[in-house]
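Morning!

As promised:
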Amino acid sequence: MKVALFVPCYVDQFYPQVGIATYQLLGKLGLQAAFPAAQTCCGQPLANSGCEREALPIYRHFVDTFHTYDYTVVPSGSCVYHVQKHFDKLEQTPAVQHVRATTIDLIDFITNILEIKELPGTYPHKVGLHLSCHGQRGLHQANESEMTPVRDGQLRRLLAGLDGIELTELDRNDECCGFGGTFCVSEAAISGRMGHDRVQDHLRNGTQVLTGGDMSCLMHLQGIVRRQKLPMRVLHAAEILNGLTP
Amino acid sequence: MSYLTHASRAEAFTLDHERTSWHDETLWFVRQKRDKAVYAVPEFQELRNLASAIKDHTLSRLDEYLAQFEAAAQANGVRVHWAANAAEHNAIVLDIIRARGATRVVKSKSMLTEECHLNPYLIKEGIEVIDTDLGERIIQMRDEPPSHIVLPAIHLKKEDVGATFFKHLGTAEGLTDPQQLTEAARQHLRAKFLAGEVALTGVNFAIAETGSVVVCTNEGNADLGASLAPVHVASMGIEKLVPRLSDLGVFTRLLARSATGQPVTTYTSHYTKPVEGREMHIIIVDNGRTQQLGRPDFRASLKCIRCGACMNTCPVYRRSGGHSYDFTVPGPIGSILSPNIDLKKHSTLPFASTLCGSCTDVCPVKIDIHVQLYKWRQIVSEANHLPTAKKLGLKFMGRLLASPTAFKVSGMLGRKGLRLLPYGLTHNKTVNAWAIARELPEPPKQSFREWYAQQAQPAT
Amino acid sequence: MSTARDRILAAARANKPAETPLPTVPDFWGDNSLERFSTVLASIGGEVAQLASLSDLETTVHKLWPEAKLIASSLFTPTLRIDQHTPTDVLADVDLAVLPVELGVAENGAVWLPEANMLHRALPTVTQHLALVLDERCLVATMHQAYARLPDGPGGYGMFVAGPSKTADIEQSLVIGAHGARSLVVLVY
């Protein structure tokens, strides 16, 4: 299986450890991922700001970069959702269709393509799981409180299988954190308030390590945790899963 | 002409931290009641599919159903009027009132008449218009617009209501007990109902096959008004139609559960024929709806049954309040309806969302609200209503991100810049909106691509 | 000059999408027990009272509402006669209305009250208290079945009534007795 790694721009620059963890985790699962150096961005920041037309060259560049791989694995559900959902604006050539169908979130890839339902390891911490809206509601990686009271999802299951771990039960299981791409600066007051409330829910319910599958939400939440000097670590799920000692 | 942005009004709302918490929690409580009611109905998701399909079908034959409805209503002895816009609607209402020589009007909740700004129009013409829904009466006394389509006074605390009733109804100063405040309103409004000459109501559903209109309330105010006054005028948007009486089985199961978590509204009233010697009028209003019908990406917004669930679930609405939208219908649904009415004025509303998608998932008729928000953003941008600096920045970003070399250099500059620039500059809250509530990420020494380049190159 | 009607219909015709099918709504069945109906009605502020038989109605009413002076009913000799010509000021004094309903819906505690059973259209909402008389055999599970069984379609006017008048417009605090009846009892026989 020929697998490429897409590392979102802000992860590349600010959270290289998340890219490294993803790369190494795939290695432990027997896959040598390639990192095509020409990659840039999925175009979402522009498109969500209303500049979909200006984003089209970025979409084409993404397809050119990744269409020769069986899967393009991304440690961010939001970028994946954008490629799957919004690359419909491109002419649907076989390359475009292939990229849309095979660009996949890391956790999705592990549980559904590699069909790994459990990773051996110990993680003796109280872990709060932040569900990214694009991963949960967009890619259906977790149950939605709008539909069912049952809290379930693929990352939740992977984490719950670890020895010694305790998952935080939040008051609001799947409320948006307020990042929202450019929303975080164009609606800074509401974005900050939403993030504050999200972090407080974790704090109130005992989260020691805040994690999730999407670094963009976590970047925003980490910024608030650090500003408020809260006793909480923020880690991408790949970092936890890669750091396990079986 | 420049307009205040949603962001600026929202920011003003959030300045009162405690009140924002209270507003958020009050509406979240409604969302939780909705969840409980929804989980208890095993076929709820199937009902959403059915409701969506019935509304889609109705829109696809809207002209025929409108004609069928009109003919059936006329055969029932109802006078049917048509209004292309708000001004025509208001003039028709006034004509009906004047023809009876009436001056006292009692009105139950109708977002359409709110949209048409009927009250100020009638009041200017010397007509006494009394809103009879408790929440609406409260905000009418305060001369405020509703902040929610189902819970119009949800932005007010009981102390605010107590002060308003002290001023307008002469209740005891400092009275804050909801039971006693409601009783005071009951006594006050009973007198208005008994004296009403013309009753105005909205319409929740209109049935094409029978010519009936259905009005749903909990308080009973629509029925008291319409059954006591000699004239009943029901105002409806063209999108209120359903084909068959039996379709109401689907919609009445969805509406109240989605709105407030009740299994059904207290009164689901079907008005088909006037009592002999009395009058019933129905005004069918377009006011931009046929235009929205002609927009393939946005016509699904016409399926809305005005339950308000998207407001209760919206994390932005809950923390910014209904008035921050400055449109008759606030919240996510308002943000996709308003650009159709005035794109420039409401250009910031499609951006008042994180696109989290919760609105779409609670919508009982499955309107793809967050998808339409995304699409309106494209139209706002194409129409050049984005702030100039933002647009220029995004265009530059587009060129940058399509070019790997330029991208690498700029990323490095950004990361290094964060390390080299003085903290005071990167954390200046007027320069950098990010830094108002959050720390910037700590810039690492090496990017991922730099780290990767140092690894043994894998065979590809 | 074309009328607003013609312009609206023409615009709807021109702008409507390609026709999509009208779905058939299945009968979802469900629980139509009195127990379910009673539980749901209690949860929305109403109450069920058992009636041994219809002939016990008048004595039961006097027992349950000893304070009620002006009682309107079509089911026994009332203390106040109401018909569709009764003036408003007389209607305003009714303490209790006792009226027959055609069916009850177990999923939501609603009952169908058609105009023919109301004496006056305003009576069910203007009365201070409301008692509705239901034959237990007329319970259905859901609103689908209820609409399928309306004896005379929607009639000239008719309402599903589910519990007493209520509001939560002040800080979401539930208050029973907004404008309509302050209490609702369904007398089941």
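Chain A has two domains: 3-113, 126-242.

Hope this helps with the figure draft.
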